[in-house]
Design a protein that fits this description.
- The protein is an alpha/beta fold.
- The protein has three domains: about 5-205, P-loop containing nucleotide triphosphate hydrolases (Rossmann fold); about 220-385, P-loop containing nucleotide triphosphate hydrolases (Rossmann fold, 3-Layer(aba) Sandwich); about 395-445.
- Strand 10, helix 13 and strand 11 (about 295-300) form a beta-alpha-beta unit.
- The strands form two sheets. Strands 10-11-9-12-13-8-14-15 form an eight-stranded mixed beta sheet, sandwiched between helices. Strands 3-4-2-5-6-1-7 form a seven-stranded parallel beta sheet, sandwiched between helices.
- The two termini are about 15 Å apart.
- Helix 2 (about 25-35) runs parallel beside helix 3, helix 6 (about 130-140) crosses helix 8 (about 165-175) and helix 18 (about 395-405) runs antiparallel to helix 19 (about 415-450).
- It has 19 helices and 15 strands.
- Bound molecules: adenosine monophosphate (AMP).
- Adenosine monophosphate binds near residues 29 and 50.
Length: about 450
């Protein structure tokens, strides 16, 4: 599928796509749009930054019966910011419909009384919100979701993580029998399976591999903290150049507070955003961030999922996130819209395994260090292990020879072993170089195809 024209969307959807400037569907969109358009349930394993929001919004709004006044579509998402983000996308689409489409955004921390009063007059045709508030409005008899038969569960893994799955289950149970359910998630944890089985008969499963969502325009730098003060490292990194917009990620709210306070103390104009802040304040700061009022933003993972700004030039990871998929989400905030980006990850001496796990996911780190106020290439952190463990890559037969050596001391054996090791190492080196060239070619192809 190479063009949005192939989907025969209604004219108002086509107008919305044109206005968005999307030239061709992203991989998840080409996979999922036809399935949703045909009314089938789908599980889309795909992360933020892949274009998944429009993968469900475009076909759903295309299928919406604008003449039917009852609620038809419910979209749940675990964070208020994300709900707000999706709602903004929804607004952009509905403004092209000739007939008005009634949409509503229901999240916690907003004026429930006002929502109830409005619901007494009319029901929204499309609901976007966080599970708690949606269920709340339904249970009190204000929101009528019995009529709706399309349910999107966005960020299902996070929904599970935050303990909202039970609430989503209740929403699904209250909805129409012939439910079309669309589940989007960066990971599909086993704990999600019973829920999926309960509501989905033979869903189409589309797995968009992580490597396609790791933006190829992003340079991943790895800097060892080596006992240096992390706050001061971050400050140095931020003030070396003049980043258009830098996002600094930390694992905990406390650490977000700490970094923000430090940078502010150094005279930088910094915003912070995390789940512990008052919803009203969070919303206000988010708006300011979107308006590019700040050059530096310190954020936690949850809050950051709602940040969708095209101009993020730098990401700094104060630490490695607890979940590797969060790393993809973090890095996915930069390098958007074909622009390049830099993601800098700080790591401590005991975090080697975590980095290895990220490398196994296909993330290609470049070792760097700060020298004389500049970021320069550094040595590979595994250089010692590489030397020490250079036998690990040898196959059984060569290792057998080495082990044998300890017992048998035949003349010329030492030389033979040495030669065998050398041949094997040369072979391994060639294989590695070839696979690197192949990966580079693949990357190049992908980035030139991306969003063309
Ligand atoms: P999402 O994964 O839904 O958060 O989308 C990531 C970003 O990609 C958003 O800024 C979208 O507006 C943008 N996007 C979505 N679909 C396309 C497309 N087909 N072409 C270009 N950009 C897109």
């Amino acid at each position: 599928m190479s063009s949005f024209n192939d989907y025969n969307f209604k004219p108002f959807i086509q107008a919305a796509i044109k206005d968005l400037g999307f030239k061709k569907p992203t991989p998840i969109q080409s996979k999922v749009i036809p399935t949703i358009k045909h009314g089938k349930s789908v599980i889309g394993k795909s992360a933020t930054g892949s274009g998944k929001t429009h993968a469900f919004l475009l076909p759903l709004f295309n299928n919406l019966d604008v003449n039917n006044n009852s609620t038809q579509i419910v979209i749940t998402t675990p964070s208020r910011e994300l709900a707000y983000q999706i709602y903004e996308n929804v607004k952009q689409i509905v403004k092209f419909s000739e007939q008005p489409i009634r949409i509503a955004n229901y999240v916690g921390g907003t004026d429930k009384e006002r929502q109830i009063n409005k619901l007494k007059k009319e029901q929204p045709q499309v609901v976007v919100g966080t599970p708690g508030r949606i269920l709340d409005l339904f249970k009190n008899g204000d929101l009528d979701i019995n009529t709706a038969n399309q349910l999107v569960i966005d960020e299902a893994d996070m929904t599970l993580d935050f303990g909202f799955l039970e609430t989503v289950d209740k929403i699904a149970a209250a909805m129409a029998q012939d439910l079309q359910m669309m589940v989007f998630s960066a990971t599909i944890p086993p704990k999600l399976q019973p829920f999926l089985k309960k509501y989905m008969k033979n869903p189409v499963f589309d797995d968009i591999p992580t490597e396609t969502v790791i933006n190829q325009n992003v340079d991943n730098w790895l800097i060892s903290t080596k006992g240096n003060d992390k706050n001061s490292l971050i400050y140095q990194l931020l003030t070396m150049g003049n980043p258009y917009l830098a996002l600094i990620f930390a694992n905990t709210r406390e650490r977000v507070d700490e970094i923000e306070a430090y940078l502010q103390g150094q005279g930088l104009k910094v915003a912070k955003i995390h789940g512990g802040m008052q919803p009203r304040v969070r919303k206000r700061v988010m708006k300011q961030i979107q308006n590019l009022d700040f050059q530096y933003v310190v954020a936690s993972d949850l809050a950051a999922r709602g940040i969708d700004i095209d101009g993020v030039s730098h990401i700094i990871n104060d630490d490695i996130p607890s979940d590797n998929e969060y790393f993809v989400h973090r890095v996915g905030r930069t390098g958007r819209g074909g622009m390049s980006g830099i993601a800098i990850t700080l790591y401590g001496p005991d975090e080697d395994q975590k980095i290895q796990a990220l490398e196994n996911m296909g993330i290609n780190f470049k070792p760097k260090e700060i020298k004389h106020g500049d970021v320069v290439d550094s040595y590979d952190r595994r250089r010692r292990q590489k030397y020490k463990g250079h036998h690990d890559k040898l196959d059984g037969s060569t290792l057998g020879m080495i082990n044998k050596k300890k017992k048998n001391v035949k003349p010329g054996y030492k030389k033979k072993i040495k030669r065998a090791i050398k041949v094997k190492e040369d072979q391994n080196r060639k294989i590695e170089v070839r696979s690197q060239i192949r990966a580079r070619k693949k990357q190049k192809k992908r980035s030139s195809e991306r969003y063309q």
